[in-house]
């Protein structure tokens, strides 16, 4: 949802692959005006020719950039605890009604959290590595294999009763989980800019 006055809210359009690709080329902060147009200057000649032939301008509105950025953040840092969702033998994914939360010991490990998107690294694992995985719960990519290593911080808060994960790649993304309960979630309060200096900071 989007709003200009925090009173009236409307649905944002869905993000397309083209919108995400064009938004990734933009740098700098948002202006706060959905109709503001960015000029895509760093676009390769092939894409420029295709867009020109299709009658499309080499511009992207801030509303489209916002939608694409939200999609990027969800793909990169939308996460769930291990066991919160299960995959059936037929391949469908459902919320696990028996999930009662991670133990405190497990909740402190990055390997207990998964990206809630189509797996990429899982397909590259060897049969020997896959033998240790439970296909009903370990069907997504774990955070422990994120690149660059060290792009997540794990902290205990409120007297060791809440585990908090923070992304150093998308500064402002905070995930929480209360061990031994079904409570978990994440929120993003940031500038919408990826921390491209992270590899040099680690």
From TrEMBL:
Signal peptide location in the record?
none
In the UniProt record, which is one GO cellular component term? kinocilium
List the residue ranges forming a coiled coil, or say none.
none
Q: What is its main location?
A: other
Q: Does the keyword Protein transport apply?
A: no
UniProt-annotated location(s)? Cell projection, Kinocilium; Cytoplasm, Cytoskeleton, Flagellum axoneme
Which GO terms of type biological process are on file? axoneme assembly; cilium movement involved in cell motility; motile cilium assembly
Alphabetically ordered keywords of this record: Cell projection, Cilium, Cilium biogenesis/degradation, Cytoplasm, Cytoskeleton, Flagellum
Q: Per the record's keyword annotation, is rRNA processing included, yes or no? A: no
What protein family is recorded? Belongs to the flagellar radial spoke RSP9 family.
This protein's name: Radial spoke head protein 9 homolog
